[in-house]
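This section describes the prediction task in plain terms. A model, or a person checking by hand, is given the sequence of a single protein chain and must write out its three-dimensional structure as a string of tokens. No templates, partner chains or ligands are provided. The sample shown here is typical of the held-out split.
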Amino acid sequence: MIQPRNWARKFLFPLALALLLTMSVKQSASNGYAKEMLASQEVYYVSPSGDDSNLGTAAYPWRTIQKAADTLMAGDIVYIRAGDYHERVTPQNSGSADNYITYAAYPGETAAINGSGVILPDDLAGLFEISNKSYIRVAGLRVINAGPFNNNAGILVLNSGYITVENNATYNTASSGIGVWGSHNVIVDGNRIDEAGGGGWQECISVAGTDTFEVRNNEVLNCHKEGICIKDGSSNGQVNRNHVHDIQKVGLYVDAWDKHTYNIAVFQNTVHDVQDSDGFALASEMGACWRTSASITTSPTTTVTSACPSPSTAPAIHKGGIR
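The expected answer:
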């Protein structure tokens, strides 16, 4: 006969332990990814005086931004100290919905990715290029001298999602200062685009084939192409509170090209000093379908809707309204 105390020791204690282990395993299975992401949240540093063999800490920073781009995981942030970085940066990892990967200038300092001496591919390519990635934020950087080929951009977002590009400055880029292609859920906010399109084919800020986006609070100046262009099958986007001035071609341009382009709202923007063209224009250069609405300072209630105009009949919005 088993005594009560021995029975409890022999059966109840192992049973309680088994239940605790089972609960722990279930919790790990359900929250394992979140725990892994939480555990990987780190802050790193890059400095011109650093070394890529360092740990990436404030005291022992890395030398190149690409070292950070190879290393950062979901939730991580890298602060880039002042100086010029003569390199191309291509992030290798994605973040997650609650854990963006962030590339940011160190607060109060100017960190420049300088393409002088860097030869980009002769293709749609960026000096800072996010390709097939998600949940990434780029903030406060200066990106300059991107080239030499016609499609070389400063910051390029390609086939990616949930990307934020904010408070950066680009200068002297062969193609777009910021280009967004084939992506979704993208925010371009508070950037300064100067001397873009100096020999390239794309506009100073180009958004092409992209769904769900906002281009807001940007300044575009001294541009050799169109200022801001939403085109080529883009949809469900907003273009608002931008300042476009002292440029060569159309200030704000919505061009369907050869794809259905729809639900684009353009409002509360300021455009002036356009040299060779219009302040605002809607077009379908290759005859595609478009459907868009625009609310413009000089004609605040203007709404244009069309099912599928030909290039010759697509209306254009000018400083004084619609032609």
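For orientation: The CA atoms of residues 30 and 63 lie 38 Å apart.
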